[in-house]
Sequence to fold (657 residues):
Amino acid sequence: MKEILKITKLPGFQTKAKIGKIYIKEGKTVAKGDIILTLEGAKGNLEVKADHDFKVIKILLDDGDEVVKDSDIAEIEVSEAIDNLEENKKDDKEVKEQKTIDILADTLPGYQKEAKVGKINKNVGEEFFEGESLLTLEGAKCNAEVEAKVDGEISSVEVKEGDEIKKGSILFKAIVNENLNKEKDEEKVKETKNYHGEVVVLGGGPGGYVAAIRASQRGKKTIIIEEDNLGGTCLNRGCIPTKSMVQSTKVKDIIDSAEIFGIENSSSEFSMGKIIDRKNNVVNTLISGLNCSMQKHDIEVLKGRGKARDNKSLEVDLKDGKAIVEFDDLILAPGSKVAFTPFAGAGLADNLTSDDLLELREIPKSLIILGGRVIAMEFAFIYKKLGTDVTVIQRSNSIFPNLDDDVIDVVRKSAIEKGINLIEGTNIKSIKNTIDKEKIVEFEQDGEIKFAFAEKVAVATGREPNLEGLELEKLNVEISDKTGGIKVDEYMKTTAEHIYAIGDATNIYNLAHVASKQGLVAVENILGNNTKMEYFAIPEAVFTDPEIGLVGMNEKMCKKENIEYIIGKFPYMANGKALVENETEGFVKVIARKDNREIIGASLIGTAATDLLSVFANLVTNKITIDKAKDVVYAHPTVSETVFEAILDLDGESLHK
Fold:
């Protein structure tokens, strides 16, 4: 049956509009929901979509024509025979697979809540490629490019240059085209660009970007090379995303225990997709802030994989070519990557890594985590609280084997009470898949071969320096036999003149804040200030439940080094604020030398332990004595009073113990 397809609606409240682009073709079939054409109005655009299947006989207008309501679009044929439209389209290579999307302002420049639309780079009907800039957002302190995440074609522009927009605003509507022909782009001659930096930083993690900012602050022309987003493992796949998930589970815990606080009829139903979306939103906001900092400090950012070219320059593979980057001083900060323990099945494609655990949008019914230290135990608590049956298999005889036994006892008890199955003192033999898509982990314990079964297995046995492909030998940079990372001295200097290395790539102390400090030390030495890197007061934060905070010496370390010590200890149960918050697990423990009464370390396990840690980091760094530490007044009622009570307990003078 033939009929005339008409325009039934115009943009806004207008009486006429202009044809933007016609997407249908004569002789071709159109499915319900496909875009027929776009209409352009004075104040906005409109996509006209098919409300049923049909075949186009003849198109009755052209791009740019002015139309009114009820104008004829095309002569079409509607038939019940057109019921296999998708198969017809598959056979027609010229027809694009149409999927419409909204392109949003996912992140704004810096940490702003609003931004202004700057230059719009794409108009209706124009094609775009993944990674291409669609428009610029202007902020008070910096700008941000909105880049395409897929290939496609603009069907409507929803904003104008100069518009004020908020996060989440729709900027464009577009048609995704996964088969977009990139031959023209690939045929372009890729040029080589030349750069020179007084300080060049290879790697944009928490060590690299901090070093770059400090070098720029000190007047150095600075270039940073990063193949991924700024922020490194910590921001993109580590510290920040895991803490976002920890916070989601913490909120769930509070809701689950609402009756304790007199709140009834509460529900802690959750959406894993929304938890992941929030995590991504937090990460993207911080990345935007870092990009803003690079602009603020006039730091050139080259996005690509860098490697050594010779002892005075690097080569960078950019999207549109290559870059040769010469340096006066170089800071190597390539970070780390997931390490795999060599046993049968360790490399199975469906094994999960810590990166994968941050992206699951469906909760596995059961999960085996191999490893019993920070990464493994943080994820064990996260997924157990989300309803997964979690088993942790650890090689050492204890989880967190380097911690004091009283700290281990608290976190182990908490894990077991929450239903986490801990299997310690093992030797992993293999991971295998069953025919019903389950996973089997074979391990040896106490001389006996045993098996554990689960839907998923995650290998969280650690990370290693990310040095592959850097060709460090061209820089005359050596690898340390002791650490397996880049060999450096206490000034962060490598074995090559004017080349420094920091962060996980050195494999000395793989923490984000250590990398940042090493970066600052490296820059000071580039400036000739002869600054040493010290490790005696490094704080460590572990986000299990309860949290763990560590700094300086613990009892095991003191005994190993034959240091005579005294301890002060105070339980959270005796703290008023902890009782109010129903967070009474754990304690604060402080260690001082017996001879000179200097505070040399602390171990905390309990609520806010990771925040209270900075108090002890200051005491240990500045070598404060017990008597001096007692002079500080702590506010009441706060959890920080546990710090004061533990210090008093060093002399047996705790007031509330």
User: Anything to note?
Assistant: The radius of gyration is 30 Å.
